[in-house]
Amino acid sequence: MLEKIINIWDKYWMLFMQGLGITLLLSAIIVIAGTLLGFLLAMLRLSSWKIAKIRPLNAMAGMYVEIVRGTPMLLQLYFFYFMLPMAFPQMNLSPVMCATVALCLNSAAYVSEVIRSGIQAVDKGQMEAARSLGLNQRQAMVKVILPQAVKNIMPALGNEFVMMIKDTSLASTFFVGELMTVWQTVRGVLYLSIEPLIIVGCIYFIVTFSLSKGIYCMERRMSANER
Question: In this predicted structure, what is the pLDDT of residue 48?
């Protein structure tokens, strides 16, 4: 088996690397877009933030987060894959776009909870102290609360990036070109399943393990700076 794995890698390593590139690009887009949308959702759900006091928006944000977190990601992928082309037929959306939108919206729900919990972990006295110094609520949030909350949020966002790298494998259902799609392609050509699957698994492990170690080092550095 080892010889087969080596031969497959020698022949198709460029294809595997292309799949890895698409996986990483897709993950980065999802995390960036999910973080921006997640921040907005978190602001809608924070009772101390003015916009969150608009009850319909607060309720809609809460319902959205609960629905996304309470349903399987594969179901959401199928939903958006069939719904988006029907809703926007003139845009001729590709499977890549549908999968990206679904994964971004899924990531946003989880990121919003990360951001909300990170902000709420900051002592309430910080907001009161900032307001007593003459800062309004927005200035206090931007200049005082968020810089402190970042220390709580960044490691969790790093973990979300690691999770999203693995979750993009579900997008292979629509053949978007990432690693699991490459596995399906190689399997179809060689009629071998296990050997290319081991290669893909090793690539996933190397990437996620490296990122996890980087996140761990970042957490240690942040902890050291607090002392």
Answer: 54
